[in-house]
Write a structure and sequence with these properties.
The protein is mainly beta. The chain has one domain: Gamma Fibrinogen, Chain A, domain 1 (Alpha-Beta Complex). It has helices at residues 70-74, 109-112; strands at 7-14, 20-30, 39-47, 87-88, 96-97, 107-108, 116-117, 120-127. Strands 3-2-1-8 form a four-stranded antiparallel β-sheet, with no helix packed on it. One of its GO terms (biological process) is elastic fiber assembly.
């Protein structure tokens, strides 16, 4: 997906109150299947959301059914988990503020913390020169 060109990443987010925020990364790549689709991300620019993704750089993509999928099982998602996450865009859709299910929602920790599940999040890449 990202082996032939250089890419940047834009992560757009929205909460249930209509507030929008973003995080931009000037360098984004995904490694080959043989390396577990390893994430590489750097060059953070803050659009109000804070940096919840750089922590996950150099991690392999993890799902609940792989041997090291304990974070995916615990937080009900699939992602480039470390121990375990600051970002969980594939988490459970919990409709905003919640306190019963810490960190299992659609989380971006440095913007809304672990007890708020976002209304929307999108990750968009584009080639850079």
């Amino acid at each position: 997906l990202t082996q032939r060109k250089k890419y940047e990443l834009l992560v757009d987010m929205e909460d249930f109150e209509g507030n929008k925020s973003f995080a931009r990364y000037s360098s984004f790549s995904i490694g080959p299947e043989s390396d577990g689709y390893r994430l590489k991300v750097s060059g953070f620019t803050d659009g109000g959301a804070g940096d919840s993704l750089t922590y996950h750089s150099e991690q392999r993509f993890v799902t609940f059914d792989v041997s090291d999928g304990s974070c995916a099982r615990s937080y009900q998602g699939a992602f480039w988990y470390k121990t375990c996450h600051y970002a969980n865009p594939n988490g459970a859709y919990l409709w905003g503020a919640h306190s019963n299910f810490r960190a299992v929602g659609v989380d971006w920790y440095h913007w809304k913390g672990y007890e708020y599940s976002l209304k929307a999040i999108s990750m968009k890449i584009r080639p850079v020169q």
